[in-house]
Amino acid sequence: MSSSVLDEQNFHHCCQLLLQQSEQLKDGWSWEAVQSGLAAPVDADSIEGDIDDKEGEDEGACTVSEGSSQVLQYEYHIVYSCSYCTPVLYFRAFTLEGKSLSLEEVWSSVHPNFRLRLQNSPLNTITLQEHPLLGQPFFMIHPCRTEQFMRPVLQAAQDQHRPVNYVLSWLSVVGPMVGLDVPLKYSTQLHPTASLSSTKPD
Amino acid sequence: MADDKDVLRDVWFGRIPTCFTLNQDEVTEREAEPYYLLLPRVSYLTLVTDKVKKHFLKVMKAEDVEEMWFEYEGTPLKWHYPIGVLFDLHASNTVLPWSITVHFKNFPDRDLLHCPSSSIVEAHFMSSIKEADALKHKSQVVNDMQKKDHKQLWMGLQNDKFDQFWAMNRKLMEYSTEDGGFRYIPFRIYQTMSDRPFIQKLFRPVSPDGNVHTLGDLLKEMDPTALPNDGEPKRYQVVIHGIEPLLETPLQWLSEHLSHPDNFLHICIIPTPTD
């Protein structure tokens, strides 16, 4: 019954489509094959993007010191979790001086509408975790609910015989919570050429 | 499960004699004596070092104290790995007691996770248990548990109560006999000489044609260089809880008996000492 499961092969495929679109939109996503060290097969990859987010221009700006807005640099990674069979969003944020933001500062940059709902979740959703490929501290949006919120999205697409890119749809849900906007152009101007088998029911 | 209950006890009560020394660069009002402690292998550094902190704060001014962190021979120690894993990975062939340096300044943001309170350890621990159950039972067991059951697992670890912990943890270790094991084995393989922190993939306890997978089978697929070649001296040790289990040991048995309380089987691959 699990039509909302994403296997690793489909993850790769979705990411490749997303990258093709990103190339046209020039928003900076790239594919990084990670060296797995001591002779393990190289199949761990992540897709990453650097987006300079000028928070001062937005409402709900992230003001670290009172009364002054500042420019923050966000770094986002999409990594596949084989445990949950979902993509996971990892990110970190720095000031221009290179100081990394604390968990509290990250929470305060989340729009209040999202914040309440996220903090009510049992796992407190945004946590500081070790990046599974880099071994460095990154913030992570916990994947244990991903399957749950993706199911209706995929079901609807399937009912209407629309192709859907799991990773793109998922990113458009989780990204905006933490300052990552997914341009509408991803869905309007450019259509992925292939329909994905991940949308078929078991 | 668990006919071999003694093994579970031995794993739970494993201890590492440790000597904590204050980093020389810390500003103190008088000389800081080292502090000795028996560290539980299955616990976490930030959970069992309140006494260490108290001890060193006695000789320091409050304004010189920031978040405490630990280092061994230049390597910052990741509190979110179980203590036994840190020891096996970084210090297993050295003389005891394990000598850890304590810092109160210059927290290495880029290497270590912040841990301002034990609730962070709890969240990390529960998140690992959930992930392990996603692998073992598609999250069914952990989702069927109530909040107080989750608390019981955590309190068992925090207060070092073997019976309290295992009364609940045995549910996470169940499987139907027709399956012959868990859906997938929650494991992580660590190597000091790799850039990647660990290897974690999907691996079943039983092959499609019904053969039981062993520790050797797992390594052959994940990290073949860790295995000895015929006729050559052994280059690597495969260590779990400070011992080298036989490579013929069934993986399902290892997962049930040698997993840490977080329900993951943590396997360290370390170079064989050359002495």
UniProtKB/TrEMBL annotation, chain A:
InterPro entries: Atg3/Atg10 (IPR007135). The keyword Transferase applies. It comes from the Eukaryota. Keywords: Autophagy, Transferase, Ubl conjugation pathway. Gene3D superfamilies: 3.30.1460.50. GO terms for cellular component: cytosol. GO terms for biological process: autophagosome assembly; autophagy of mitochondrion; protein modification by small protein conjugation. Pfam families: Autophagy_act_C. GO terms for molecular function: Atg12 conjugating enzyme activity. The keyword Transferase applies. Belongs to the ATG10 family. This is Ubiquitin-like-conjugating enzyme ATG10.
UniProtKB/TrEMBL annotation, chain B:
Residues 120-174 form the Autophagy protein ATG5 alpha-helical bundle region domain. GO terms for biological process: apoptotic process; autophagosome assembly; autophagy of mitochondrion; cellular response to nitrogen starvation; immune system process; negative regulation of programmed cell death; piecemeal microautophagy of the nucleus. Residues 11-104 form the Autophagy protein ATG5 UblA domain. Residues 184-269 form the Autophagy protein ATG5 UblB domain. It comes from the Eukaryota. Forms a conjugate with ATG12. Part of the minor complex composed of 4 sets of ATG12-ATG5 and ATG16L1 (400 kDa); this complex interacts with ATG3 leading to disruption of ATG7 interaction and promotion of ATG8-like proteins lipidation. Forms an 800-kDa complex composed of ATG12-ATG5 and ATG16L2. The ATG12-ATG5 conjugate interacts with RAB33A; this interaction is bridged by ATG16L1 and promotes ATG12-ATG5-ATG16L1 complex recruitment to phagophores. Interacts with TECPR1; the interaction is direct and does not take place when ATG16L1 is associated with the ATG5-ATG12 conjugate. Conjugated with ATG12. This is Autophagy protein 5. It comes from Collichthys lucidus.
